[in-house]
Amino acid sequence: MIQQRTNMDWMLKDLAEGVPNVRNVIVLSADGLRMAQYGTEPDTADRLAAACAGLQSLAAAVGHEFPHGDGRMRLVVIEMGGGFFYLMAAGARAFLAVLADEGVDAGLMGQRMRDLVARIGEHLSTPPRSSSGQVA
Known about the structure:
The protein has one domain: Dynein light chain 2a, cytoplasmic (Beta-Lactamase), CATH 3.30.450.30. Helices cover 40% and strands 25% of the residues.
């Protein structure tokens, strides 16, 4: 798994360096495991990944309230003092998360995140884990 993280990290560089005011970019599995990171320390990325797993679960619960939708979370944006948080579905059981400072161009951020997911979505997908914790 370590080699996979190393190989995926470079894919996040364009997003991190192509949108001004980006602080952290991570890719995580649905169960909150960091798969890749750019611009952040591993401990910070792990904390963000764990928080994102809970957030995507909450978003999915809210999504089930829409009678004609599929209940799947596509994008969550949170504005807070100091900046913005973006969480986007990025393949089967994978998510792309970005922390950005105030002043980030929200339109550019959304477009670049969608472009990244479209280009490398299959690389961001993770198979479900079995009950033993192994990838199925």
